[in-house]
Amino acid sequence: MNNLKDILYDSGITKVNGELNVVVQAIAFDSREVAADSLFIAIKGEKTDGHQFIDKAIVSGAIAIVCEVMPENIVEGITYVVVSSSSYALGIIASNFYDHPSNDINLVGVTGTNGKTTTVTLLHDLFTMLGYHVGLFSTVVNKIGNVEIPATHTTPDPIVLNKLLKEMVTAGCEYCFMEVSSHAISQHRISGLNFRVAGFSNITHEHLDYHKTFKAYIKAKKAFFDQLSSKATAIVNIDDVNGLVMTQNTSATVATFGLKNMADYKVKIVENSFNGLVLNINNKDVWTRLIGGFNAYNLILVYAIAIELGLDVLEVLTGISKLKSVEGRFEYMKSDKGIIAIVDYAHTPDALANVLSTIAAVRTKNEKVITVVGCGGDRDKTKRPLMAKIAAENSDKIILTSDNPRSENPDEIILDMKKGIPVERSARVMAISDRAEAIKVACALAEKGDILLVAGKGHEKYQEINGKRFPFDDLEILKETLKNLQK
Ligand SMILES: CC(=O)N[C@H]1[C@@H](OP(=O)(O)OP(=O)(O)OC[C@H]2O[C@@H](n3ccc(=O)[nH]c3=O)[C@H](O)[C@@H]2O)O[C@H](CO)[C@@H](O)[C@@H]1O[C@H](C)C(=O)N[C@@H](C)C(=O)N[C@H](CCC(=O)O)C(=O)O
Ligand SMILES: Nc1ncnc2c1ncn2[C@@H]1O[C@H](COP(=O)(O)OP(=O)(O)OP(=O)(O)O)[C@@H](O)[C@H]1O
Ligand SMILES: N[C@H](CCC[C@H](N)C(=O)O)C(=O)O
Ligand SMILES: [Mg+2]
């Protein structure tokens, strides 16, 4: 669709200056990406205001502008359209421009603090295994079938989202599983999308730098469910105290899942060990190689979504027992010397607590638990002492280190973390800001049978320091170090 008037349909227009019957070849919200005959959408952002770049966009070829405030300098021959919210309008415009691809695919969105990547990746793998063509948007990677497209965000901007959705439809994908981050909901990256199913995993402490209060964070997640259509199904975790809060104002049909409370989709943990989980779903025992009680929640959500989408119970349960774990999520190896090393993306207090309680539940004897953990720079500072406290209380030794320091001083981040260490636990805490060195020291400290947890970066293949990404891989460093220790 490229008539400006059609592209702007439903975008919340309050004022127009210029011709609406013009042909637009491309849409952009960043002046640096504007090409000839484009529509430029000016957005007030976190760091700067896109309205400042309107003239630059026109010089680069924009012929139409969507903005929240009519500029003082109007350029002759350019169409200016004022809308009540540019970021909301962008989602609608992107969807119109790409012919509403979300209407032509079964779009499933999963939100929550933890478990989004795991759930959508398992859904992608399950549906692919059962012979469907599937698309994926995740923190780790985006996929059209098995073709990988690098992911820059957990939930991409509306233009990338709709463009890739269109490509998925063209490639014959019947389903698309996507992560819906709270940033994406607040910034209206998902406005205009037609979700068939929406899942809620849980909500715990995270991103308070951005949302400011936990209440605002809950409200942001709830907004996803508020915007669902009456044809959609919302599936929420009933064991989370905010599970039903999500669906208070939704038009969607509501279904629940859980382990503890009465739920439409109920799961029981029969066995939980380093060999995987045995779950009881729908009165049938199913083994999975995924480890950890929290994965029972992820798997019952996978099951519930698959059943709501009309799949066969036995086919789904058989598929679940064949699923492999997700990269960087409780990824574990055993060295020849008998040291167990785990890489996990736990970067929130709740995730870290879950991973450490899983380790406590699955370890067989009184082996030592050695945890290497850091916190990201330019992110929620209030989680730093909490994560350090959880690590110290649940490990025999902890090494505080850097995650992605970004623009911050790693030693300052470690100092923030140290504030959470209970005095009686301080003797078991070391601080080594060089992450590679911290991992190596942890390996050297470990003895046969000990469990080494390297938390926070999971699948990430880089470390971001001062705006630059340097190659870095927790698992590689562990493998290399443990191999050398053997000699
Ligand atoms: C804080 C945040 O989320 N920022 C996102 C936001 O950018 P912004 O609105 O703040 O942009 P800005 O720099 O203030 O610029 C304002 C406007 O001016 C435009 N501009 C700017 C400069 C210029 O020369 N010309 C120009 O037109 C920009 O394109 C933008 O439209 O909108 C952009 C487009 O969608 C995002 O790329 C950007 O993500 C930044 C890079 C980011 O780091 N986001 C993270 C926090 C994030 O989104 N994370 C979540 C996952 C979180 C989780 O659940 O774990 C995610 O979904 O990835
Ligand atoms: N259902 C769950 N409940 C609590 N913790 C979980 C759950 N699933 C996974 N985790 C923990 O959280 C970490 C992150 O999991 P995952 O990547 O699936 O979450 P996410 O929601 O995609 O995170 P992000 O917001 O960074 O995209 C895992 O490495 C694990 O430690
Ligand atoms: N989506 C999260 C990922 C955090 C991962 C952790 N390794 C970090 O860099 O803080 C964020 O951008 O806040
Ligand atoms: Mg994710």
UniProtKB/TrEMBL annotation:
GO molecular function: ATP binding; magnesium ion binding; UDP-N-acetylmuramoylalanyl-D-glutamate-2,6-diaminopimelate ligase activity
Domain Mur ligase central: 110-305
Processing after translation: Carboxylation is probably crucial for Mg(2+) binding and, consequently, for the gamma-phosphate positioning of ATP.
Enzyme class: ligase
Pfam family, one: Mur_ligase
Record bears the keyword Membrane: no
Compartmental location: Cytoplasm
Domain Mur ligase N-terminal catalytic residue range list: 25-86
Sequence motif Meso-diaminopimelate recognition motif, location on chain: 403-406
NCBIfam families in the cross-refs: murE (TIGR01085), PRK00139.1-4 (NF001126)
Name of the featured protein: UDP-N-acetylmuramoyl-L-alanyl-D-glutamate--2,6-diaminopimelate ligase
Organism (species): Putridiphycobacter roseus
Lineage start: Bacteria, Pseudomonadati, Bacteroidota, Flavobacteriia, Flavobacteriales
